[in-house]
Amino acid sequence: MFSVNDILSRGGLVAKIKNVSYETVFLHVGLQDLHWLKTTPEDLHNKYKQLIYKLLETTNTRICVSQIIPIKGYPYLNERIQQVNEMMFSLISSIRLTYEYKKRIFTSCNDNLANLMTRTVGSHGIELTLSPEGKRKMWLLVKDSLQRTLGLNRDRIRKLNISRNTNKNRDYD
Q1: Residue 69's closest CA among 130, 21, 160, 143?
Q2: Structural domain total, the chain
Q3: CB-based contacts of 126: which residues, under 8 Å, 6+ apart?
Q4: Rounded to whole angstroms, how far apart are CA atoms 143 and 146?
Protein backbone atom coordinates (compact mmCIF):
# COMPACT_ATOMS: atom_id res chain seq x y z
CA MET A 1 0.00 0.00 0.00
CA PHE A 2 1.34 3.37 -0.99
CA SER A 3 0.08 6.85 -0.47
CA VAL A 4 -0.77 8.88 -3.55
CA ASN A 5 2.20 11.13 -2.69
CA ASP A 6 4.51 8.09 -2.86
CA ILE A 7 3.06 7.09 -6.22
CA LEU A 8 3.44 10.57 -7.70
CA SER A 9 6.90 11.30 -6.29
CA ARG A 10 8.44 7.97 -7.30
CA GLY A 11 6.78 7.83 -10.70
CA GLY A 12 7.28 4.07 -10.79
CA LEU A 13 3.64 3.13 -11.18
CA VAL A 14 3.14 5.31 -14.23
CA ALA A 15 6.43 4.09 -15.75
CA LYS A 16 5.50 0.45 -15.11
CA ILE A 17 2.07 0.91 -16.67
CA LYS A 18 3.69 2.54 -19.73
CA ASN A 19 6.33 -0.20 -20.08
CA VAL A 20 4.05 -3.18 -19.57
CA SER A 21 1.06 -1.66 -21.41
CA TYR A 22 -1.55 -2.84 -18.95
CA GLU A 23 -5.03 -2.91 -20.40
CA THR A 24 -6.69 -1.80 -17.15
CA VAL A 25 -5.56 -0.21 -13.89
CA PHE A 26 -7.75 -0.38 -10.80
CA LEU A 27 -7.04 2.45 -8.32
CA HIS A 28 -8.50 2.34 -4.84
CA VAL A 29 -8.64 5.92 -3.54
CA GLY A 30 -6.72 6.25 -0.31
CA LEU A 31 -8.14 5.74 3.11
CA GLN A 32 -4.51 5.58 4.25
CA ASP A 33 -3.88 9.08 2.91
CA LEU A 34 -7.03 10.49 4.45
CA HIS A 35 -6.97 8.76 7.84
CA TRP A 36 -3.36 7.94 8.74
CA LEU A 37 -1.53 10.71 6.85
CA LYS A 38 -4.20 13.34 7.64
CA THR A 39 -4.35 14.55 4.04
CA THR A 40 -7.17 17.00 3.43
CA PRO A 41 -9.96 15.91 1.09
CA GLU A 42 -9.03 18.71 -1.33
CA ASP A 43 -5.34 17.74 -1.39
CA LEU A 44 -6.16 14.06 -1.83
CA HIS A 45 -8.51 14.88 -4.70
CA ASN A 46 -5.89 17.10 -6.38
CA LYS A 47 -3.18 14.41 -6.06
CA TYR A 48 -5.44 11.74 -7.56
CA LYS A 49 -6.42 14.17 -10.30
CA GLN A 50 -2.71 14.56 -11.16
CA LEU A 51 -2.21 10.80 -11.16
CA ILE A 52 -5.28 10.11 -13.28
CA TYR A 53 -4.37 12.74 -15.89
CA LYS A 54 -0.77 11.50 -15.96
CA LEU A 55 -2.04 7.98 -16.67
CA LEU A 56 -4.56 9.14 -19.28
CA GLU A 57 -2.05 11.37 -21.08
CA THR A 58 0.93 8.99 -21.11
CA THR A 59 -0.68 5.55 -21.49
CA ASN A 60 -3.53 3.85 -23.31
CA THR A 61 -4.73 2.00 -20.23
CA ARG A 62 -8.28 2.09 -18.97
CA ILE A 63 -8.70 3.28 -15.39
CA CYS A 64 -11.27 2.26 -12.82
CA VAL A 65 -11.25 4.35 -9.65
CA SER A 66 -12.69 2.63 -6.59
CA GLN A 67 -13.95 5.12 -4.05
CA ILE A 68 -13.16 5.06 -0.32
CA ILE A 69 -15.26 2.75 1.85
CA PRO A 70 -17.00 4.63 4.70
CA ILE A 71 -16.28 3.29 8.18
CA LYS A 72 -19.03 2.85 10.76
CA GLY A 73 -18.30 4.67 14.02
CA TYR A 74 -16.05 7.38 12.55
CA PRO A 75 -18.41 10.31 11.79
CA TYR A 76 -15.67 12.92 11.22
CA LEU A 77 -13.70 10.59 8.95
CA ASN A 78 -16.86 9.59 7.07
CA GLU A 79 -17.63 13.24 6.41
CA ARG A 80 -14.19 13.59 4.81
CA ILE A 81 -14.57 10.29 2.95
CA GLN A 82 -17.87 11.51 1.51
CA GLN A 83 -16.20 14.77 0.39
CA VAL A 84 -13.44 12.88 -1.42
CA ASN A 85 -15.87 10.41 -2.99
CA GLU A 86 -18.09 13.23 -4.27
CA MET A 87 -15.10 15.12 -5.68
CA MET A 88 -13.75 11.97 -7.36
CA PHE A 89 -17.15 11.15 -8.84
CA SER A 90 -17.42 14.69 -10.18
CA LEU A 91 -13.89 14.56 -11.59
CA ILE A 92 -14.44 11.27 -13.36
CA SER A 93 -17.82 12.39 -14.68
CA SER A 94 -16.23 15.52 -16.16
CA ILE A 95 -13.34 13.53 -17.67
CA ARG A 96 -15.85 11.15 -19.27
CA LEU A 97 -17.40 14.12 -21.08
CA THR A 98 -14.25 14.46 -23.18
CA TYR A 99 -14.25 12.39 -26.34
CA GLU A 100 -10.70 11.06 -26.05
CA TYR A 101 -11.08 9.72 -22.49
CA LYS A 102 -14.77 8.80 -22.42
CA LYS A 103 -14.25 5.05 -22.72
CA ARG A 104 -11.08 4.93 -20.63
CA ILE A 105 -12.15 5.96 -17.13
CA PHE A 106 -14.81 4.65 -14.78
CA THR A 107 -15.63 4.76 -11.08
CA SER A 108 -16.90 2.31 -8.52
CA CYS A 109 -18.91 3.39 -5.47
CA ASN A 110 -18.34 1.43 -2.24
CA ASP A 111 -20.85 3.12 0.08
CA ASN A 112 -22.79 -0.10 0.67
CA LEU A 113 -19.70 -1.73 2.23
CA ALA A 114 -19.63 0.68 5.20
CA ASN A 115 -21.25 -1.72 7.66
CA LEU A 116 -18.95 -4.55 6.63
CA MET A 117 -15.71 -3.07 7.98
CA THR A 118 -14.15 -4.58 11.09
CA ARG A 119 -11.69 -3.01 13.50
CA THR A 120 -8.83 -5.05 14.92
CA VAL A 121 -5.61 -4.24 16.72
CA GLY A 122 -2.50 -5.16 14.80
CA SER A 123 1.14 -4.17 14.47
CA HIS A 124 0.18 -0.65 13.33
CA GLY A 125 -2.43 -0.10 16.04
CA ILE A 126 -6.07 -0.11 14.96
CA GLU A 127 -6.45 -1.81 11.59
CA LEU A 128 -9.55 -1.60 9.45
CA THR A 129 -10.43 -4.54 7.21
CA LEU A 130 -13.45 -5.91 5.44
CA SER A 131 -15.34 -8.76 7.07
CA PRO A 132 -15.53 -12.01 5.07
CA GLU A 133 -18.97 -10.95 3.78
CA GLY A 134 -17.52 -7.52 2.94
CA LYS A 135 -14.70 -9.16 0.97
CA ARG A 136 -17.23 -11.17 -1.05
CA LYS A 137 -19.30 -8.06 -1.78
CA MET A 138 -16.16 -6.08 -2.61
CA TRP A 139 -15.13 -8.78 -5.09
CA LEU A 140 -18.52 -8.52 -6.79
CA LEU A 141 -18.17 -4.72 -6.98
CA VAL A 142 -14.62 -4.99 -8.33
CA LYS A 143 -15.68 -7.63 -10.85
CA ASP A 144 -18.60 -5.51 -12.07
CA SER A 145 -16.42 -2.39 -12.24
CA LEU A 146 -13.71 -4.15 -14.22
CA GLN A 147 -16.26 -5.63 -16.61
CA ARG A 148 -17.69 -2.16 -17.25
CA THR A 149 -14.20 -0.70 -17.59
CA LEU A 150 -13.23 -3.36 -20.11
CA GLY A 151 -16.46 -2.77 -21.99
CA LEU A 152 -17.77 -6.27 -21.45
CA ASN A 153 -21.52 -6.45 -21.57
CA ARG A 154 -23.43 -9.19 -19.75
CA ASP A 155 -24.17 -11.20 -22.94
CA ARG A 156 -20.50 -11.24 -23.91
CA ILE A 157 -19.47 -12.29 -20.38
CA ARG A 158 -22.02 -15.10 -20.42
CA LYS A 159 -20.75 -16.30 -23.80
CA LEU A 160 -17.14 -16.18 -22.57
CA ASN A 161 -18.05 -18.22 -19.49
CA ILE A 162 -19.97 -20.77 -21.56
CA SER A 163 -17.04 -21.03 -23.96
CA ARG A 164 -14.58 -21.55 -21.08
CA ASN A 165 -16.80 -24.17 -19.47
CA THR A 166 -17.23 -25.98 -22.80
CA ASN A 167 -13.47 -25.98 -23.41
CA LYS A 168 -12.80 -27.26 -19.89
CA ASN A 169 -15.19 -30.15 -20.47
CA ARG A 170 -13.51 -30.99 -23.77
CA ASP A 171 -10.12 -31.22 -22.10
CA TYR A 172 -11.37 -34.05 -19.92
CA ASP A 173 -13.14 -36.05 -22.66
Answers
A1: 130
A2: 1
A3: 119, 120
A4: 5
| Cβ pair 80, 122 in contact under 8 A | no
Chain segment 55-108, per-residue pLDDT in tens: 999 889 899 898 988 888 888 888 999 999 999 999 999 999 988 898 899 888
Min mean pLDDT across 87-96, 113-122, 149-158 is at 149-158
- Angstrom CA distances, 97 to 93, 104, 171, stand at 7, 11, 46
- What is d(CA 21, CA 132) in angstroms, rounded to the nearest whole number? 33
pLDDT of residue 125: 67
Sheet-wide strand order for 105-108: 24-28, 62-66, 105-108
Q: Give the range of the structural domain holding residue 155, as residue numbers without chain letter.
A: 4-171
57-60 CB contacts, 8 Å cutoff, 24+ apart = 58/14, 58/18, 59/14, 59/17, 59/18, 59/21, 59/22, 60/21, 60/104
Q: Please state, in angstroms and rounded to a whole number, the distance separating the CA atoms of residues 150 and 144.
A: 10
pTM for this prediction: 0.73
Read off the CATH number of the domain in which 129 is found: 3.40.50.1110
* b/e map 150-159, b = 16+ CB within 10 Å: eeeeeeeeee
SS3 of 99, please? coil
